[in-house]
Design goal:
The protein has about 110 residues and is of the alpha/beta class. The protein has one domain (about 5-95): Thiamin diphosphate (ThDP)-binding fold, Pyr/PP domains (Rossmann fold, 3-Layer(aba) Sandwich). It has 5 helices and 4 strands; from the N terminus they run αβαβαβααβ. It has helices at about 5-15, 30-45, 55-65, 80-85, 85-95; strands at about 20-25, 50, 70-75, 100-105. A 4-stranded parallel sheet has the order 2-1-3-4, with helices on both faces. Helix 2 links the parallel strand 1 and strand 2 (about 50). The radius of gyration is 13 Å and the shape is globular. Keywords: Oxidoreductase. It comes from Neomoorella glycerini. This is Pyruvate flavodoxin/ferredoxin oxidoreductase pyrimidine binding domain-containing protein.
Length: about 110
């Protein structure tokens, strides 16, 4: 049966169906709704969700999970990527063993 979802809810649902095990984020429009949806549906799917203290920490937690072999998602607003830049750049040469998706949204995405 078809389900009507907003864009951020669809991102969360896609992540759940793809088998994520860890989701982190720093609150901020327009990305907050992704984590809100994951916190609502994630626990029954066995997903660890966390609001992080900033975007860098969110990336580091998700990257650590992905490096350990889990699928992970981190969501943030566009300007938050500046805060997480050091952690993201380190991933370019460290890599991950699981899967890691960075959902970086701007107001134009919604």
């Amino acid at each position: 049966m078809p389900v009507l979802l907003m864009g951020n809810e669809a991102i969360a649902r896609g992540a759940l169906e793809a088998g994520i095990r860890v989701a982190t984020s720093y609150p901020g429009t327009p990305a907050s709704e992704i984590m809100t949806a994951l916190m609502h549906f994630g626990p029954e799917a066995g997903v660890y969700t966390e609001w992080s203290v900033n975007e860098k920490v969110a990336v580091e937690i998700a990257a650590g999970a992905a490096y350990a072999g889990a699928r992970a998602l981190v969501s943030m607003k566009q300007m938050g990527l500046n805060v997480a830049a050091d952690a993201v750049m380190s991933l370019a040469y460290i890599g991950v063993k699981g899967g890691l998706v960075l959902a970086v949204l701007t107001h134009e995405n919604i």
